[in-house]
From TrEMBL:
Polar residues composition-biased segments: 27-40
Species, as recorded: Pyrenophora teres f. teres
Region (Disordered): 27-50
Keywords: Membrane, Transmembrane, Transmembrane helix
Transmembrane segments: 82-105, 562-583
UniProt biased composition (Basic and acidic residues): 41-50
Protein name as catalogued: Uncharacterized protein
Keyword Transmembrane helix: yes
């Protein structure tokens, strides 16, 4: 079968062979190569285009306007020099982003300025400008790389991948269409991902933060030895200090749940958690607290924190404190009949040292009590009147010595980790501990249960005390009314946890009370004590090394992560731009890849004059822009059609038909 080419017309035009075999061999002998007159060759390009328009409108190509003379491809003209200059300027535009990144790095840590403000405004334009420049330069790089490879010799598949690599989508489309997942295709796809990444990195490059300066200094915290000066050290001390510790204790007890679960107390002192509840998550003796303390099962050991003193106008970053705290563990909590209880019926709640291994008392005459806590753990019994019967809990009381590391974020400080220390040190001896157990613990067991019923004639008529109601439900204390709560309904663990908090809160309110409100004088850092006002002992403080952070004016802060991303993206783009520039000007072949006009080169179905092979794609398009073309059937009269890009001659190139067969 032979193709039927478009019939040739009379006149000085190119003639095509009558029969073209299916192999479509090009016959160069059918083209004329007669030089044109010199005056025709020297005509201005614009005039040439205008002259050819009239010829194309009549479906003919005037020979006088077609470059058919031979010429050198490397001839340097003024126009080419201007093009080279423009290409160099365009290829150098990525330097702008490198300069922006360097400018941002230069003002890192400096205070806000007009220069920095203008730089920020410029960086905000980068997400728009960078992708545009990236598309222009990277597209040119792939285009001229493919043209250079085509001149050197390459495969059609690789050429198609490079020519079509003008965006992420087109790169993926070529991979899928060619059914070839090559390293070149993957690399070209990844390269185009740098376009949005570079733009967004410039937007996130420069920010502001408050200027900080870190240093090490001294702070002081309430000495653990101050517990020996508790109001619980004697009956007279209890009576004289009642007006001091009662409002502090009750105020903390009636505070909102938000404050009770906050790492600081009502006066800003940092609270310590219950050491026993912290999981041993580290290999050393320190126990780390979870980052989200509120979601853990760890409770604070007291509603009161440890008072500290530090330099004014300086923010603490971290420090350590030492303190002693009590801890209850209960193994039994139940409700029994009143006949089985040994408590005094004049009060609703009582606590006492009690050895639960001894037989239960039938009455007060046959009960054996040691009278005081002889050692740790100390057996304690709690008896509370219930709505029907008496709630009895048997527990053990222990005293521990702990060191806590506190981390601060601005004004909020919380314990980061804790470790247990030896109970005794140079400031707390065994004799001190013996006195504490025999006197202070005994007095506390007496006065804690009757805090809000002191000197009341018939306290049992008022229902459970505020302390009992708090143990039963810390969120429902105020305005409960005169009723009895059933503490025996609580599990031993819950009862022990809440009793620990209550006991430590009351205990901390009885010593160093004047320091809880804060606003301590700086002289404590020099003297190590808060001098007594009117009467009472001096309150001692322990000096400790602390880390401080001083906040100044806002300064610029460079994100070095995004700086690196922008720098790498810009350097890759700059390298691609200069490589494309070099390839463009060392390649001899005309730029004909990817242009529609390139389909007219040596096309037997398009009547073009001899020559013009040195024209670039756009130059050829300018000369042939009025040429009517069509993708159609060039063998409309044969049983089987053939599809080609041809001149749109009416009657010679037929429209494509879905029902017709083509070869």
């Amino acid at each position: 079968m032979a193709y039927e080419p478009v019939q040739n017309r009379k006149g000085p035009y190119v003639r095509l062979e009558e029969d073209i075999e299916l192999s479509m061999q090009y016959n160069s002998g059918s083209y004329r190569n007669t030089p044109l007159p010199n005056n025709t060759q020297d005509r201005d390009g614009k005039a040439r285009v205008e002259d050819t328009r009239e010829g194309f409108l009549s479906n003919e190509v005037p020979l006088g306007q077609w470059p058919s003379n031979s010429e050198r491809m490397t001839t340097v003209t003024l126009w080419k020099a201007l093009v080279i200059l423009f290409d160099v300027i365009l290829a150098s535009t990525p330097i702008m982003f490198i300069a922006l990144a360097s400018s941002a790095a230069r003002i890192d840590g400096e205070e806000l300025s007009y220069y920095g403000l203008r730089l920020e405004e410029t960086l905000r334009l980068s997400p728009t400008i960078f992708p545009l420049i990236f598309a222009a330069l990277m597209g040119r790089f792939f285009r001229y790389l493919s043209l250079w490879l085509a001149q050197q010799g390459t495969t059609l598949g690789l050429l198609e991948q490079l020519v079509g690599c003008q965006s992420v989508f087109s790169a993926l489309e070529r991979q899928i269409g060619l059914r070839s997942w090559s390293a070149v295709g993957l690399a070209s796809t990844l390269v185009w991902l740098l376009s949005p990444l570079g733009g967004q990195s410039a937007l996130r490059l420069l920010g502001t933060e408050t200027g900080t300066a870190r240093s090490v200094g001294q702070m002081g915290y309430l000495s653990p030895a101050t517990i020996m000066d508790s109001f619980m050290s004697g009956a007279s001390s209890v009576n004289s200090g009642r007006s001091t510790f009662t409002p502090v204790f009750v105020g903390a007890l009636l505070s909102s749940n938000e404050f009770q679960s906050w790492p600081k107390d009502l006066w800003g002192n940092t609270k310590l958690p219950i050491y026993r509840q912290i999981d041993n998550s580290s290999l050393d003796e320190w126990k780390l607290l979870p980052e989200d303390f509120s979601d853990s099962n760890i409770s604070f050991a007291s509603l009161l924190g440890i008072p500290i003193v530090s330099t004014n106008n300086r923010f603490l970053e971290s420090y350590t404190v030492k303190a002693r705290q009590w801890d209850f563990t209960c193994f039994s909590n139940r409700i029994v009949t009143q006949e089985r209880a040994e408590s005094d019926r004049n009060y609703t709640w009582q606590m006492k040292v009690y050895d639960s291994t001894q037989p239960d008392c039938v009455n007060t005459t046959n009960c054996t009590f040691s009278g005081y806590c002889s050692g740790y753990p100390c057996p304690i019994r709690s008896e509370s009147l219930a709505s029907s019967g008496v709630s009895i809990a048997d527990c053990n009381l222990s005293l521990g010595h702990y060191e806590s590391e506190v981390l601060c974020d601005a004004w909020i400080c919380s314990v980061h980790r804790m470790r247990k220390l030896d109970l005794f040190d140079e400031y707390y001896s065994r004799s001190d501990d013996d006195e504490l157990r025999k006197v202070s613990v005994a007095n506390q067991l007496i006065h804690l249960p009757i805090m809000d019923a002191y000197n009341v004639r018939f306290p049992v008529l008022r229902g459970s005390t505020t302390m009992e109601k708090w143990i039963y439900d810390p969120s429902n204390v105020i305005g409960v009314g005169s009723k009895y709560v059933d503490l025996g309904e609580l599990s031993p663990d819950i009862f022990a946890e809440r009793l620990t908090v209550l006991y430590n809160t009351f205990w901390q309110s009885t010593y160093g009370t004047r320091t809880l409100g804060g606003n301590l004088p700086m002289s404590i850092l020099q003297t190590g004590r808060l001098d007594a006002a009117e009467s009472g002992p001096n309150i001692s403080f322990v000096a400790s090394e602390a880390k401080f952070v001083d906040y100044g004016n806002p300064v610029y802060k460079v994100s070095w992560k995004w700086f690196t991303v922008l720098f790498i993206c810009s350097m890759i783009l700059l390298a691609a731009a200069y490589t494309g520039l070099v390839l463009k000007h060392i390649t001899i072949a005309p730029d004909i890849i990817g242009y529609a006009s390139s389909l007219t080169i040596m096309n037997p179905y398009l009547l073009t004059p001899t020559g013009g092979t040195t024209l670039h794609g756009l130059q050829r398009s300018a000369l042939l822009r009025e040429l009517p073309v069509r993708i159609g059937d060039v063998c409309p009269n044969d049983p089987v059609g053939a599809i080609a890009f041809a001149k749109n001659d009416v009657g010679r190139v037929a429209a494509l038909d879905r029902n017709r067969r083509y070869i």
